[in-house]
Design a protein that fits this description.
Number of helices: 9
Number of domains: 2
CATH topology of the largest domain: Rossmann fold
Order of helices and strands: EEHEHEHEHEHHEHEEHHE
Number of strands: 10
């Protein structure tokens, strides 16, 4: 079987010990079951395949992208499977495991220095500018994930899986916002099936721009770019919740110890927000969120490293 066919159809599990009494049921999709250990495999396949199909990415071209890590590993994986060269702009702000994963899959890395290892608006903009310069070279295709609507379509299948695995009995979907593509893709499908479903976006409290706050440095990798992402679609979102970095890290540790779910920081933020939503909706409600990636991507960080 083609390795790319291993993307998707991930398991869904119900959280137990970590859920307070009189709280709605909370289910999590285990997106680390995708080949590179994250949900980003879905969007990587979509953006590469669509660009091949319409001729934007031609045989012999080099793929270029800026990324904090999981997207980079996913793009490198798809490019390795399809035979494309890939150059990635990333940063020391992101875990060493992610950077090593990208290079292991054949990516050529250019690292942009961060401010003390933190994700900031300036860092994201610096990375974009560096990728833009690489994309000016001949025979390149720039993914430009923050502006690329093809990535949204990569998550339609995730929305359908959630709908089918809950037998349509889902009352809310809760998920962190980075590029906003995954939230938008899933929300589009779920709202089509059930317009009354509540879609809740999650962002770092230190950079709560969607709630009207100022951008700031944080360490929830894959979330909170410091400004409203171009793919953000507010008409699909019913509520926005902010979660502190330290709380997200502690919840990630608790998920590992108490639920045997080994995930990253954004997954911790997702569960904190999902609990808030499930408490508000009551014990008869069903809330779905994502284990966006594996804790194996963060072993060298202060989430798990000691």
């Amino acid at each position: 079987m083609d390795i790319l066919r291993a993307i998707g159809d991930t398991s869904m599990v119900q959280l137990g010990r970590i859920v307070p009494p009189d709280c709605g049921r909370i289910f999590a999709k285990l997106e680390w079951e995708n080949p590179t250990g994250s949900m980003k495999d879905r969007m990587a396949l979509a953006v590469i395949s669509r660009a091949e199909d319409d001729g934007r990415l031609k045989p012999g071209d080099t793929v270029v992208e800026y990324t904090g890590g999981s997207t980079g590993a996913s793009l490198a994986f798809v490019c390795a499977a399809k035979g494309h060269r890939i150059r990635i702009v990333s940063s020391d702000a992101f875990s060493r495991e992610k950077l090593n994963h990208m290079t292991a899959l054949g990516a050529e890395l250019k690292l942009v220095p961060s401010e003390g290892g933190l994700t900031t608006k300036k860092l994201i903009l610096d990375m974009i500018q560096a990728a833009r310069r690489l994309a000016e070279e001949p025979h390149t295709y720039w993914i430009d994930q923050l502006e690329n609507p093809d990535s949204i379509a990569g998550y339609y299948s995730l929305g359908e899986e959630i709908w089918n695995q809950t037998n349509g009995e889902v009352d809310a979907f809760v998920h962190c916002v980075g590029t906003a593509a995954s939230l938008r893709g899933v929300a589009t499908v779920l709202k089509r099936h059930k317009p009354s479903i509540k879609v809740v976006a999650v962002e770092p409290a230190e950079s709560s721009v969607l709630l009207g706050g100022k951008p700031g440095p944080h360490k929830i990798e894959g979330a909170g770019i410091g400004y409203t992402p171009p793919l953000w679609e507010p008409t699909l979102v019913d509520n926005i919740l902010a979660v502190k970095t330290d709380d997200a890290k502690e919840m990630a540790r608790r998920l590992a110890r108490e639920e045997a779910l080994f995930a990253g920081m954004s997954s911790g933020a997702n569960v904190i927000a999902a609990i808030r939503v499930a408490e508000r909706l009551g014990p008869d409600a069903t809330v779905v969120t994502l284990m966006a990636d594996s804790g194996l991507k963060y072993l060298s960080t202060d989430v798990y490293g000691r």
